[in-house]
Amino acid sequence: MSGRILLLLVAGVTIVSGRSPQSDYIDDLVRTERYSQRFSNNVKEDAKLDVPELIKKYKYPLEVHEVTTPDGYILQMHRIPHGRVQNNVPGTKRPVVFLMHGLLCSSADWIISGPGSAFGYILAEEGFDVWMGNARGNYYSRNHVELNPDNTDFWDFSWDEIGHIDLPTMIDHALAETGNEKIHYVGHSQGTTAFLVLCSLRPEYNDKIISMHAFSPVAFMAHNESPVLNAIAPFANSIKILASLIGIGEIMPNSMLLTWAGQIFCKDSAITQEICSNILFAVGGWNDAHLNTTMMPVIFGHTPAGSSVKQFAHYGQSIATKEFRRYNHGFVKNLRLYGRRSPPKYDLSNIVVPIFFYYSDNDPLSQSKDVYRLYEELGSESKVLLPLPSFGHLDYLWGIDVKPLLYDTVVQLMEVLEDQ
């Protein structure tokens, strides 16, 4: 593992402006008369700036770090070391919070709602040292010491590798940089899946976690209601092979899967019509009661941020088998990697950290029956179920009332655990 700081953004430092993953799409969108008057210039700008430029715009301190995993992937991490208005003295040792995004997403999830609303900024103002990870293959982590993302070999990974390779690499770097011994971990969706993989396969990392906060926890998926993932599930064991044969390793917005999802959500009467070309909402569901529609261009500017076909296939395997187990490569490769014909289950009894589950039956990807099963199989004696009945899958990030309904509670729990 190696790591280095790429740049530190403070007053008086100038860097070259960066663009968000979907900035070209936003340019086309706002040129149309229908959208040009609907959104403010501030929203349009936020949609096109990348994460470092966004944080710089709002005058928060930022460090950009790169770390290299043992298998050669170069991951970019974004750090907000202290607040802008409160708890803003540089160089003070603070409790570390590590934030991990979900499928098709990036560190942008935690800051695009802006100061006062986005969790990354809220945590910094509350006195936390905020580290935001980026999994291999997303917009900020598309480099490797040897492999090229234009080749399918680069994309030969699922969330299994993100969990047991990417996460420990990033967590260890954050601890080394800060001198802290432990962190608080917050994951959304795939960010929770990866954490469960980490502590089941590498239980020594339990000792580095003060608390884990699982927003929309995804492990068991027997009751999943995502139309896209349920469509994939019957073909989960062959979709990766087919994709490799035709030279596809990455899922991005121009995929055939997106086209299929768009046909479902693009009816004239559908509330999802305006976002029918975005696979993120096809996977995660739509909840107009909580989503701030003014933020739609910003969301579109930063998501999707990239994913491998195998990440989708692995979730498809979880739906098909109704189990939480390692990736099924086929019996020959399974024998070589696992010493058995079928992939082993993740040993959830190895996970003993204090863990808090935030979930909702309004969330197609994290249904309560699956969360209850996960809760029962965990080894931790400190585990709490905190239902949020009205939340959809994306409301944990961009819901209008997410601060009073969720973030304030999480901050309070972290502060209590820090005092113990």
UniProtKB/TrEMBL annotation:
Domain spans labelled Partial AB-hydrolase lipase: 51-113
Keywords: Glycoprotein, Hydrolase, Lipid degradation, Lipid metabolism, Signal
One Pfam family it belongs to: Abhydro_lipase
A biological process term (GO) from this entry: lipid catabolic process
Record-linked InterPro entries: AB_hydrolase_fold, AB_hydrolase_lipase, Lipase_euk
Recorded superkingdom: Eukaryota
Gene Ontology molecular function: any one: hydrolase activity, acting on ester bonds
The keyword Repeat is annotated on this UniProt entry: no
Signal peptide range: 1-18
Catalytic residues of the enzyme: S189 (nucleophile), D363 (charge relay system), H393 (charge relay system)
Family: Belongs to the AB hydrolase superfamily. Lipase family.
Name under which the protein is recorded: Lipase
Species annotation: Papilio xuthus
